Amino acid sequence: MRRIISLTVNGVVRELAVEPRRTLLELLREDLGMTGTKRGCSIGDCGSCTVLLDGVATFSCLTLAIQADGCAVETVEGLAESGKLNSLQQAFVERGAIQCGFCTPGMLMTATELLRCNRHPSEQDIRRAISGNLCRCTGYQKIVEAIKAASEDTA
Description:
Largest sheet: 5 strands, mixed
CATH superfamily of the largest domain: Beta-grasp domain
Order of helices and strands: EEHEEEHHHH
Low-confidence stretches: none
CATH topology of the largest domain: Ubiquitin-like (UB roll)
Number of strands: 5
């Protein structure tokens, strides 16, 4: 039995019929083709599926699609501005914070929430914020440096 939900994804209102057990991750990837949000562990341990739900970093693998009814969802696809990388994305590229790239969308979304709440976070603030996002490649230092650099660009 499907239920009609309405949500705004990256500024576009979407109305979809979804099964109550379907996750937000499945809706984004399979129904809307937004594959930037990654399926990692599917149990909320890795953070690769992080999106912003009404501005709050949320694991989309643990969120039912029907819970997003009436909400605004931001995905990594929505970060670019007029087809250009935003300052956070650019900082990740320039500082080598991307290796395999699997964790990058979740890291970017988590960092986006952080920078909206705290325009000039300390290194400790950054490390605390990204602690729910696992990276197997970078050792985190370059990710922290990229987020710090992006925070300095928002002066």
